[in-house]
Design a protein that fits this description.
111 residues, mainly beta, Alpha-D-Glucose-1,6-Bisphosphate, Chain A, domain 4, 1 helix
Length: 111
């Protein structure tokens, strides 16, 4: 990743971020605007009975931030992504990651 920065706060636990990746060999850099939201639950309120913290995101098209886009970058699209952290002990946690996206990369190059 080349750069990631928050560009707009939407609420206490929700914001828009702009993410850019580096150009690698013949593959152009990628960028996307993500709406990210976070939520935490104490052990007595979660289904697992353990403390949980979740971060989820989805790509958004935001014309008001077009000036942040690089002309040579390709716009990726994250249909849904996120992390779920579950506390397993006071000093450790499990991390579950989910990503459904289209970074507009040829399957031939991706393999």
């Amino acid at each position: 990743m080349k750069e990631a920065k928050a560009v707009k706060q939407l609420g206490p636990d929700c914001f828009i971020t702009h993410i850019k990746t580096k150009k690698i060999a013949m593959v152009s850099s990628r960028e996307q605007f993500l709406c990210l939201s976070s939520r935490s639950q104490e052990a007595d309120q979660s289904k697992s009975g353990k403390r949980e913290f979740c971060i989820s995101g989805k790509s958004k098209e935001l014309p008001e931030f077009a000036h942040l886009s690089e002309p040579s970058a390709v716009r990726g699209n994250a249909v849904l992504n996120g992390f779920l952290f579950i506390e397993t002990s006071p000093t450790q946690c499990e991390c579950h990651f989910y990503l459904e996206s289209d970074f507009k990369i040829s399957l031939f190059i991706a393999k």
